[in-house]
Design goal:
With 302 residues, the protein is α/β, with parallel strands linked by helices. It is 31% helix and 22% strand. It has eleven helices and 15 strands. An eight-stranded mixed beta sheet has the order 9-8-11-10-12-13-14-15, sandwiched between helices. A five-stranded parallel beta sheet has the order 2-1-5-6-7, sandwiched between helices. A two-stranded antiparallel sheet has the order 3-4.
């Protein structure tokens, strides 16, 4: 089993910060899991509630009597580190940190993210996020919408990985109007742990995924990204969009002539509709967009 399988296909989920309060993320995410007909077991965690949407709630993670694969964290940023420590005591293997207020805000947020990252690594917990939308898995044996997006896409053979939560929502809206389905839908946020390379490896072996789409604002390791992608037979559409000099990975791609948009020829028809989103990227101030689109195979590029 892949070590991120617990995040993408968990048998049980604790939702820390689940809430009955209208308009809260805790309510939105828990309700989305229920309405998607999640096939595993849900454990809402809230010290002030006896139940969430009719499901028995627990004061904290260690009070849950059963094994838990994954926890979704919707708590203030200052509490995330301590909740991950509790997750370790509970034996939880993966966490999705929805909470914002980390590296993306600079200053104290950068240090806070380092502490959270170190805590998860010390206990062998894989972490998605922080500052992410969450994960959707449409497989009939999972049916998980662990996001705060109201849309649960239909099952399909396209996996999407995005560093931008806003782009995730835009693509979900776009797909719903065109009857497009997805196998996996992953928002990676700040990539404090799980990154695009981890997900490429996972999706390479995922039987539900036939096409991979990635929207990335920076590349963790450009060399590793290309080396992993070269061994994947599935079509890949990747958009690399970032600020000048933000990433060594982006510079590696430039130095080796890898274009802003790369996808194999056999994917071009399936994914042609997604190209229109390149126009949306031009609205981001300070972003560097290259004005060309190449349609080739990974073999030709690498």
């Amino acid at each position: 089993m892949s070590d991120i399988e617990y995040i993408l296909s968990p048998k049980s989920i604790a939702i820390v910060g689940a809430s009955n309060r209208p308009g809260s993320l805790g309510l939105a995410i828990f309700r989305n899991l229920l309405e998607a007909a999640y096939q595993g077991i849900l454990y809402p965690v809230n010290p002030k509630a006896k139940s969430i949407q009719g499901v028995k709630a627990y004061p904290n993670l260690v009070d849950i009597p059963d094994e838990v694969d994954m926890a979704v964290l919707i708590v203030p940023s200052e509490q995330v580190e301590s909740v991950i420590e509790l997750a370790a005591r509970k034996g939880i293997k993966g966490v999705i940190v929805i909470t914002a207020g980390f590296k993306e805000i600079g200053g104290h947020g950068v240090e806070l993210e380092k502490k959270v990252q170190a805590m998860a690594k010390a206990h062998g917990i894989r972490m998605l996020g922080p500052n992410c939308l969450g994960v959707i898995n449409t497989n009939k044996d999972v049916r998980m919408n662990a996001t705060f997006s109201r849309l649960m896409p239909k099952p399909g053979n396209i996996a999407l990985v995005s560093q931008s939560g806003a782009m995730c929502v835009a693509i979900l809206d776009f797909a719903e109007g065109r009857n497009m389905g997805f196998s996996k839908f992953v928002s990676i946020g700040n990539k404090a742990d799980v990154n695009e390379i981890d997900l490429l490896r996972y999706l390479r072996d995922d039987p539900d995924t036939k096409v991979i789409i990635m929207y990335l604002e920076d590349i963790t390791d450009g060399h590793s990204f290309i080396e992993v992608a070269k061994d994947i037979d599935k079509p890949i559409l990747s958009s690399f969009m970032g600020l000048v000099d933000v990433s060594e990975g982006v510079r590696y791609l430039e130095q080796n002539g890898i274009p802003n948009y790369v996808f194999p020829e056999e994917a071009s028809r399936t994914m042609a509709a997604m190209i229109k989103y390149s126009e949306n990227l031009k609205l981001h101030k300070g972003s560097r967009i290259r004005p060309y689109l190449y349609v080739r195979t990974w073999r030709h590029l690498c």
